Every structure is written in C-alpha cells, then in structure tokens.
Amino acid sequence: MDLKTTNTSLTIIRVFKASPEELWQMWTDAKEIEKWHRPNNTDFTTSSEADAKVGGSYKISMKSKDGAETAFGNSKS
Predict the structure, then answer these.
(1) Minimal CA–CA distance to 70: which of 38, 26, 27, 23?
(2) Backbone phi, then psi, for 26, in 5-degree steps?
(3) Edge to edge, what strands does the sheet with 57-64 contain?
(4) pLDDT tens track for 27-55
(5) CA distances (Å), 15 to each of 2, 10, 21, in order?
(6) What is the reported pLDDT for 49?
(7) Which strand (E) or helix (H) includes residue 71?
C-alpha cells in the first residue's frame, strides 16, 4: 500500500481483485459498508448511511464494548 499525505489531503492506493462496479457498490452502499468497515464481526458493530452523489453525505459509526466512534462528512459540489 502506498500512502501520501499533505496538510490537506490523504491518498491511499490499493489494488483489489474486484471490478470497478463491485468496488463502487462496496464503498457506496450502506449495507455493504457495514460488512467491511470494522476490524472484526465479533467485537464490533457498524451502522452507516451513504448518499453517493455530488453534495451527498456519509456517516459510519463503529461500536464496541469500549465505546463508539463515528466518521462523517459530505462531498464537495
């Protein structure tokens, strides 16, 4: 994995054995996000909302016995 940072952005480059359509579905469908956005499926639960369009927003919450964390944001128009 290559990682590049600046003061205003983060770029991560990964190669996946999946079609572009499959990756789009995994990154934009709330139920798909909930399947992969956690370290494991025994100690963590994830809930998410995703509106994959210009001006849309996302919210991903991950909970464990030690607490909860939420990431959220929106896309630029």
Answers:
(1) 38
(2) -65, -35
(3) 45-50, 57-64, 67-74
(4) 889 889 888 888 888 898 999 999 988 88
(5) 10, 17, 14
(6) 92
(7) strand 67-74
Domain ranges for the chain:
40-77
Task: Please determine, for residue 75, whether its predicted confidence score (pLDDT) is greater than 60.
Answer: yes
- Give the per-residue pLDDT at 1: 59
**pTM of the entire structure?**
0.66
Report the candidate in 24, 68, 66, 29 with the shortest Cα–Cα distance to residue 46.
68
* Contacting residues for 13 by C-beta, under 8 A, at least 6 apart: 1, 2
62-20-11 Cα angle (round to 5): 60
